[in-house]
């Protein structure tokens, strides 16, 4: 026999419970206790319970959201291919509420990533006379919508990652972060979003890693450069570098 909990979602369960409690309570209060306030309380429980049962647990299915996020990678992949981008991206702190990914053309030109916060915001920009790309990764809009806490401390990074990746986007099963010197290591377990875009993965990291970069830059308020990403048991580990001596 299928249990009631398997049929009903959480909202319906709570709503049904309120309705089942409120109806007999209202009748008992009216006929036996002769109490108008308690009768009104019972009727209020019935109305509230019925209203809750009509609210879907997820107005937009999480699968649909994840599919839309994956599809948004197509345009970024096309831009990266068009300009033959190869260097790892640096995620810059929000500008007008959105994190920007900065991708230098010159190999090993990491210092320009730290100076890129004031660079003109356009697809092909220039920092210190060196051309580079600027793109809005999918994680930029996710972070803008999720609005994780931004206290500027490294201790807040893991909480923000959990909120955005696990709770808001439901893109991974779990995530942890560790700050080691000028680096932040993010471990992602059982990612549910897969990007089959080789250029995107090589430059920005896999989609969960890219979203993580946006979150870290948002929380710390500093540029963070993707150093490496590699597979671990049941997930991936990504290392981000924070500019030395930044306050």
Any overview of this molecule?
The protein has 247 residues and is of the alpha+beta class. The chain is built from 10 helices and 8 strands. It has helices at 4-7, 10-33, 36-53, 62-71, 73-82, 111-114, 138-146, 157-168, 198-204, 207-220, and strands at 90-95, 98-104, 124-127, 130-135, 172-180, 183-191, 224-232, 235-241. Strands 3-4-2-1-7-8-6-5 form an 8-stranded antiparallel sheet. Helix 7 (138-146) crosses helix 10. The model is unreliable at 1-8 (pLDDT under 50).
Summarize the SSE layout with pairings.
Blueprint: H1 4-7, H2 10-33, H3 36-53, H4 62-71, H5 73-82, E1 90-95, E2 98-104, H6 111-114, E3 124-127, E4 130-135, H7 138-146, H8 157-168, E5 172-180, E6 183-191, H9 198-204, H10 207-220, E7 224-232, E8 235-241
Antiparallel strand pairs: 1-2, 1-7, 2-4, 3-4, 5-6, 6-8, 7-8
Overview features:
alpha+beta, 2 domains, 10 helices, 45% helix
- Helices and strands, in order, run as HHHHHEEHEEHHEEHHEE
What class would the helix/strand composition place it in?
A: alpha+beta
**What is the overall number of helices?**
10
- Total DSSP E strands: 8
Q: Can you give me a brief rundown of this structure?
A:
The protein has 247 residues and is α+β, with helices and mostly antiparallel strands. It is built from 10 helices and 8 strands. Strands 3-4-2-1-7-8-6-5 form an 8-stranded antiparallel beta sheet.
